Amino acid sequence: MQSIKILSVNISEKKGTIKKPVGQIELTQIGIGSDAHAGNWNRQVSLLGTESIWKFEKDAARKINYGEFAENITTEGIELWKLNPLDKLTCSDIELEITQIGKECHGTSCTIFKEVGNCVMPKEGIFCRVINGGILSPGMELIYQPKIYKIQIITLSDRAYHGEYEDKSGPRIKELTEDFFSTLHLPSSILYSLIPDDQKMLESLLKESKEKKTDLILTTGGTGIGPRDFTPDVVKPLIDKEIPGIMDMIRLKYGAEKPNALISRSIAGVMDQSLVFTLPGSVKAVNEYMTEIFKSLMHLIYMLHGLEKH
């Protein structure tokens, strides 16, 4: 784990103004109570690294003071803009969750822009919400903890489970999912389970994944209308909210040319903090479904965690 040194802590009484260094700040559930940006929202606390400030100093040909870009916490040790939403910064019991990288620049209507002539915060500043509060002061260190996305893949197939043929759809989901998160430079941990067409086993795995706060659950198999096709029927009572549009669009898109695709009863939904997708049991269908799911997956994850902007 990487450590980040706190060089300065800064506050201001009004938004859009330069912040002034103080001896310490107290983080609460609404942010920093004495700071203008405190409140029940996602951008409670802002951070900016000297790695960003140094670059601007070179372009501006002048010294930039701590807080001049309206950051609450000035840091050193890591390029903050390379971090990701839902990563965490901790210090003892203090826990901050990153909610946004950069922000909209208000240009000439912003005091900082007027006084400095530019602003680095919209590009390289980061914003957090307070999970656990406490006191922070210069000289202390934050520990960077990247979010590791937990993924559960479940193949349902009597024949594959008993070794009559090789499961290919589950491993294909795993391959595609690994590639997706790797491309985004997001660490992931994937569990793969091959089970028979057993309703109780599926229900048990789903409930276990929920308890572990698994981010993404993907099943393959059992979405048709055969006597052993029950996956959607097991999943539906367990989800809190269904997301019908994704699966409806996939059925219509591929069913326009191949009507058999319309037979799939695949569903998608939210189970506590988990996103659940049930896919048909073929590699071809997996390729089609995952292509569409990936288009909105990160947006869904951020929405599920209450992030307004990412």
Question: How does this model look, in words?
Answer:
The chain is an alpha+beta fold and 310 residues long. 30% of the residues lie in helices and 28% in strands. It is built from nine helices and 17 strands. The chain has helices at 50-60, 111-116, 121-124, 158-161, 169-183, 199-211, 231-235, 244-255, 283-304, and strands at residues 2-11, 20-22, 25-28, 31-32, 45-49, 73-76, 88-91, 94-101, 126-132, 134-136, 141-145, 149-156, 188-195, 216-220, 241-242, 268-271, 274-279. It has a seven-stranded mixed barrel with strand order 1-6-5-9-8-7-11. The two termini are 24 Å apart. The model has no long low-confidence stretch (mean pLDDT 92).
